[in-house]
Q: What sequence folds into this?
């Protein structure tokens, strides 16, 4: 059995063959063999089993066995690369353009709509790149590395705050001088000992670097809308421990007091723990001799399971264990006593009972004097996330009493120090004195010491047990802003909730500065100690007089990516185009055998000599084709595939024709179209690019003589950071608009498959006054030259010299040669670079003859489309050397 992969539905053998020995689905085979395969509504290839087309929606269920034949065909519907092991499908996708090349002049705006690029000036500042690709930087770019961990701030001394950052520069290695890293506009090295920069190669060990530690900051502890840097601490006060109302209304998680029935005590706040008892109606029936009594009632609101440790108040008060329970508003429940024996002696009949986990504890999630909201805690103190809430009821017998841990009000918090699902063994918190800490002596203005006492408490959020206190006392005599960072190690890994207060009220004496704020709360979490495949950097910035320097989002680098040269060797700082092309191709599974290396090496020499570079950072999803097109446009080039090889094609000045096509090998008349100038034509091009000096998006105007710029085409370039090179590309676009206005179409037998995309060819038709064509009937050496005999009589009447070109056996053009008339059928030429075969055992050479100024239509082939199995249709555009006139010029000042 074979799975055959075809590059298209054209005739020909498969590109690859794969065997299997077991039954499987199409989806399973593709998942196992195609890297990054994913299910799509309209995939770029089709599948057939034993000749039957299988719709993509059926690939998950469509099975084949070892004796079946599976054929996979690449469809001409896009270039989304889904790279595989080797060239499977990815290589087939690239084959598409070899068959159907398209004109695609470098327009600079290729790749727009693919998402943000770090080279854009609109993206300024470090950011978190969650669920985004890791940046692939090429060349030299001003880059704002992305965060790998939250920023960490702490006070190393009362007047010194330290900021630590862990950042990802991007994939691979970089030439990374510290002098090319900056905070804002200030080079890091200019900060001296106040900034410490460490750069790590891919996979390096960061475990000894404190900046690589993951500190999660509680978002509730930060600056406020009132303009304070933190939460102002106040002294706590005793609060009334129990609510005193004549009735309460229960529904869901909310408990309210009807108007006129009383109020909840002032000072009750979120986070407090309360014991809530509220009786609901139940019926208890005798279970029979020796059997457990049966409780019937709303079991849905109880949300209990067998084995739960519960407490009952009201009738049958006591501690029990649930034996069985059935759901429903008329569900049933049987119990065991705490010692495990069956509960057979319960009071029977219609009763009022409060049933819940032992302790009947609830944590307040919101509180006012009229309404509180609560979540139920289990007997272990954990939050019962599945509890549906209280069934709707109004009661005048319910009681709500605060736990002993919640009898003080005006605490700030509690706030959880780490996210749900995470545990920590160490927490850190900060206190900040925005006006300093001192007493100003009234008699002489001298500063004398003043003391403030504060306290932080924490406990395990899952248990909601007793609080652990960490008191601190601070004594200073300064009007400067100061801060303190405290750290404690917890008894065991937990998700701590924390609250804070000052002990003793803030002074009302205007000569005393003692305002204290809770500035931060952090939890140390587990983090990687190395990052494979990417360059990372850590930065420690030590603040001086200014405590809260906002610099963590303004760290930039101007580093150059290291890549191997295309001829091999170690990775070196590299801005050249060719190494990028080779790296991208190899990153999706291609090898040198899949690339036209000879052409890439030829173009590499041209690009280097011209100083054509590619400088860009790609951090958004994109196809291989799109990125390679962006890279190649920096060198006036495009991506094609030629005879199975990825081949860059440069639109450039030409001097040597490749093939010739005349009525002798055309299967129909050639059509010529001319796009005449109109008032709607562009008369200018404006190119936007990111300037490599300012790193701003700049615009350079590209105008020809006479252009007014009243209707311009806007072009956005990626990877171009030079004004001169941006202008050159823009002028190429402008000159193309003006001078590439002719199109040609013709058909041949198989001859056209000799040409490639942008092949420079000579065309002729049978229009009088232009070139003429014929068959070479014979030739013979003569006097150091050659005599040619034409099958047709040529017109020599045009003034000026004449030339003749000869088609070689492989379709290429030999010549043109200066032609001297002997008669209308014979001419002499001074030389000949091949030996024509006029034996008629093979097709004889063709002749292309004409006036020296009008002997052919010079064109660039843009498309060759197969016509069945025996021919092809061809499209071309006129070649005009004026298009390239500004390729090496400089923009006007």
A:
């Amino acid at each position: 059995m074979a799975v055959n992969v075809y590059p298209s539905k054209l005739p020909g053998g498969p590109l690859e063959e794969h065997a299997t020995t077991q039954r499987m689905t199409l989806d399973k085979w593709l998942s196992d063999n195609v890297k990054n395969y994913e299910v799509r509504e309209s995939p770029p290839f089709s599948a057939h089993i034993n000749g039957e087309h299988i719709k993509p929606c059926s690939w998950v269920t469509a099975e084949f066995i070892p004796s079946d034949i599976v054929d996979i065909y690449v469809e001409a519907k896009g270039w989304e690369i889904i790279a595989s092991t080797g060239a499977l499908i990815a290589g087939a996708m690239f084959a598409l353009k070899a068959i159907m090349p398209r004109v695609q002049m470098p327009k600079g705006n290729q790749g727009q709509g693919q998402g943000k690029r770090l080279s854009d000036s609109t993206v300024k500042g470090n950011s978190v790149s969650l669920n985004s690709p890791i940046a692939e930087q090429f060349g030299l770019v001003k880059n704002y590395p992305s965060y790998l961990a939250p920023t960490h701030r702490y006070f190393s001394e009362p007047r010194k705050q330290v900021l630590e950052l862990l950042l990802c520069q991007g994939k691979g290695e970089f030439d990374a001088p510290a002098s090319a890293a900056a905070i804002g506009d200030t080079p890091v090295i200019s900060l001296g000992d106040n900034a410490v920069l460490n750069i790590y190669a891919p996979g390096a060990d960061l475990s000894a670097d404190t900046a690589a530690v993951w500190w999660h900051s509680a978002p509730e502890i930060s600056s406020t809308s009132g303009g304070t840097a933190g939460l102002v601490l106040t002294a706590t006060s005793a609060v009334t421990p129990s609510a005193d109302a004549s009735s309460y209304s229960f529904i869901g998680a909310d408990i309210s007091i009807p108007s006129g029935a009383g109020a909840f005590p002032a000072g009750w706040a979120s986070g407090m723990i309360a014991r809530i008892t509220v009786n609901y109606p139940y019926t208890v029936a005798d279970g029979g001799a020796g059997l457990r009594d049966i409780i019937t009632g709303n079991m849905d609101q109880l949300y209990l399971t067998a084995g739960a440790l519960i407490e009952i108040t009201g009738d049958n008060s006591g501690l029990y264990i649930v034996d069985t329970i059935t759901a429903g508003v008329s569900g049933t429940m049987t119990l065991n006593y705490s010692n495990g024996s069956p509960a057979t002696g319960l009071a029977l009949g219609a009763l009022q009972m409060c049933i819940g986990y032992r302790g009947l504890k609830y944590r307040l999630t919101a509180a006012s004097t009229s309404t509180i909201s609560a979540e139920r805690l289990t007997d272990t103190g954990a939050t019962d996330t599945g509890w549906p809430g209280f069934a709707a009821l109004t009661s005048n017998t319910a009681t709500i009493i605060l736990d002993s841990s919640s009898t003080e009000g005006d605490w700030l918090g509690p706030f959880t120090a780490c996210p749900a699902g995470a545990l920590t063994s160490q927490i850190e918190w900060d206190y900040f004195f925005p006006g300093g800490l001192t007493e100003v002596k009234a008699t002489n203005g001298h500063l004398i010491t003043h003391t403030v006492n504060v306290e932080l408490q924490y406990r395990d959020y899952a248990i909601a047990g007793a609080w652990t206190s960490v008191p601190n006392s601070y004594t200073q005599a300064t009007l400067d802003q100061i801060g303190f960072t405290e750290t404690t190690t917890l008894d065991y890994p937990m998700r701590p909730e924390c609250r804070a207060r000052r002990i003793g009220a803030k002074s009302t004496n205007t000569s005393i500065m003692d305002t204290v704020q809770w500035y931060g709360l952090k939890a140390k979490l587990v983090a990687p100690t190395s990052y494979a495949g990417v360059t990372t950097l850590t930065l420690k910035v030590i603040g001086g007089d200014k405590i809260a320097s906002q610099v963590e989002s303004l760290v930039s680098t101007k580093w150059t990516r290291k890549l191997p040269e295309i001829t091999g060797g170690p990775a070196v700082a590299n801005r050249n185009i060719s190494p990028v092309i080779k790296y991208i191709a190899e990153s999706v599974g291609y090898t040198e055998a899949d690339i036209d290396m000879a052409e890439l090496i030829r173009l590499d020499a041209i690009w280097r000599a011209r100083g054509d570079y590619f400088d860009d950072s790609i951090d958004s999803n994109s196809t291989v084709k799109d990125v390679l097109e962006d890279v190649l446009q920096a060198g006036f080039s495009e991506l094609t595939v030629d005879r199975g090889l990825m081949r860059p094609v440069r639109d450039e000045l030409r001097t040597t024709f490749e093939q010739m096509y005349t009525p002798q090998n055309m299967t129909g008349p050639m059509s010529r179209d001319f796009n005449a100038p109109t008032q709607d034509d562009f008369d200018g091009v404006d190119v936007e690019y990111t300037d490599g000096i300012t790193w701003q998006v700049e615009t350079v105007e590209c105008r020809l003589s006479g252009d007014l710029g009243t209707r311009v085409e806007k072009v956005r370039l990626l990877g171009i950071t030079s004004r001169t090179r941006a202008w050159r590309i823009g002028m190429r676009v402008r000159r193309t608009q003006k001078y590439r206005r002719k199109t040609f179409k013709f058909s041949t037998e198989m001859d056209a498959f000799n040409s490639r995309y942008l092949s420079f060819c000579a065309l002729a038709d049978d229009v009088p006054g232009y070139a003429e064509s014929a068959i070479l009937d014979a030739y013979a050496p003569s006097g150091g030259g050659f005599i040619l005999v034409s099958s047709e009589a040529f017109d020599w009447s045009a003034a000026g010299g004449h030339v003749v070109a000869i088609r070689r056996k492989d379709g290429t053009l030999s010549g043109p040669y200066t032609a001297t008339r002997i008669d209308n059928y014979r001419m002499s030429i001074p030389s000949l670079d091949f030996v024509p075969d006029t034996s008629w055992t093979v097709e004889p050479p063709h002749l292309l003859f004409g006036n020296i100024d009008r002997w052919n239509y010079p064109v660039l082939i843009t498309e060759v489309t197969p016509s069945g199995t025996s021919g092809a249709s061809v499209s071309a555009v006129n070649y005009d050397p004026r298009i390239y006139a500004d390729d090496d010029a400089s923009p006007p000042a």
Remarks:
- The first helix runs from residue 26 to 33.
